[in-house]
Amino acid sequence: MHPFESAAIKDTPDRAAERKQHHIDICRTQNVESRAVAGTEFFLAPEALPEFSPDSLDTRRPFLGRTFSWPFLITGMTGGVREGQRINETLALLAERWNIPMGLGSQKLMLSDPASRRLFDVRKVAPRVFLMGNIGAVSFNYGVAVDAVVRMTEQLELNACAVHLNALQEQIQPEGERNFDRLLPHIEQLVKRLPVPVIVKEVGSGMTAETARRLFSVGVAAVDVGGNGGTSWSVIEGKRGDVLTHRLGELFRNWGLSTLDSVRECVPVAKVFGVAPERAVVATGGIRDGAQAAVLLALGAQMCGIGLPFFRAVVNPSDGISPEDSLEQEMQFFTRSLRIAMYCSGAQKIDELSSRLRLRGQQ
Ligand SMILES: Cc1cc2nc3c(=O)[nH]c(=O)nc-3n(C[C@H](O)[C@H](O)[C@H](O)COP(=O)(O)O)c2cc1C
């Protein structure tokens, strides 16, 4: 078999736990972000005379059957190791307090090592949080059964299940599971078997209209475009491997479709399959403030996913403050910047942002 087609290193529960710790250590401080390949430049038209009180701004957003207070979600990142559990607990407390959804990181480890289950469980600290599970679609080609994911979802009382698509990451990862052949029927089975909604997410390469169409056609409730411009899994896996792996990881740092261009491709497709929020598009990848999120919401994203900024707020708090306070400050930065962008563009509700959208150079 060609070396690029088979993983050089066999995956084991110990190795999977070690990999999760590597991911935390690398993302803590290293340069792991891609640069969004410039797309069209949109902005929100300013409103010089916003004739309403900022107190009447409405930032609520329906998604996957619940109404959240903000259009932000904490995208799935970690779990399964002790530090990951602590990070998740801090994130879950924030998510519950602010009434936003939160994702767990990949739970594959939980399937091979049931003892790791308690290291994913955040219900005991945040009983009411809207929690999304996480499994890699490619795992279905490597021995993970749809039934096992259904059981895992029940055991942790998850409110939704996110299935990640990460073809680029698996090609670079030293223990990568590289073969994505015929995964759609497994996703369809999962949608049929699970009592909770399924969301399918890319993790940094973006998503085209055609892929979104295939996913919505088997009944997924939402696609998260996971666009280029934020955390790069090519780079992170490159840093975990040998010299060749490192070179390949860097080569593909900026691979893919930006978050903005992915949203523009996928939103019209979602509309063909249903009315939002029943068929939703989530924008994730490189969102670093609420003003940027406002543009993606104006383009039709139902929610905006945030990963690295929240992760770093927890693992690298500034001197003298706790991880909890540091995360709270980051959340306030996102919510206040969104409110300012809404107010100063005259949008009282999130749905009103779309009428404020302008293309630079076309006034
Ligand atoms: C430390 C870390 C671990 C992650 N682990 C997972 C994972 O296990 N499963 C997954 O679907 N996405 C994972 N992601 C990807 C995020 O869900 C998200 O798609 C990505 O970070 C892009 O958002 P960002 O640019 O705001 O970080 C992880 C991200 C980070 C930063």
Structure description:
The chain has 363 residues and is of the alpha/beta class. The protein has helices at 13-29, 82-98, 108-112, 146-155, 167-172, 184-193, 209-217, 233-240, 243-251, 259-273, 290-298, 308-315, 323-344; strands at residues 42-44, 61-63, 66-68, 72-74, 102-103, 131-136, 160-165, 198-202, 222-224, 280-284, 303-306, 357-359. The chain has one domain: TIM Barrel (Alpha-Beta Barrel). The protein is 40% helix and 13% strand. The chain has an eight-stranded parallel sheet with strand order 4-11-10-9-8-7-6-5. Strand 2 and strand 3 (66-68) form a beta hairpin. Helix 1 (13-29) crosses helix 8 (233-240) and helix 11 (290-298) packs across helix 13. It is globular, with a radius of gyration of 20 Å. It starts with 12 loop residues before the first helix and ends with a strand. Bound molecules: flavin mononucleotide (FMN). Flavin mononucleotide binds next to helix 1 and helix 12.
Widest sheet: strand ordering? 4-11-10-9-8-7-6-5
SS element count, helices: 13
According to CATH, what is the topology?
TIM Barrel
Number of strands: 12
The CATH H-level superfamily is Aldolase class I
CATH architecture heading: Alpha-Beta Barrel
Helix % is 25-40%
Mean pLDDT across the residues is: 95
Return residue spans where pLDDT drops below 50 for at least 5 consecutive residues. Answer: none
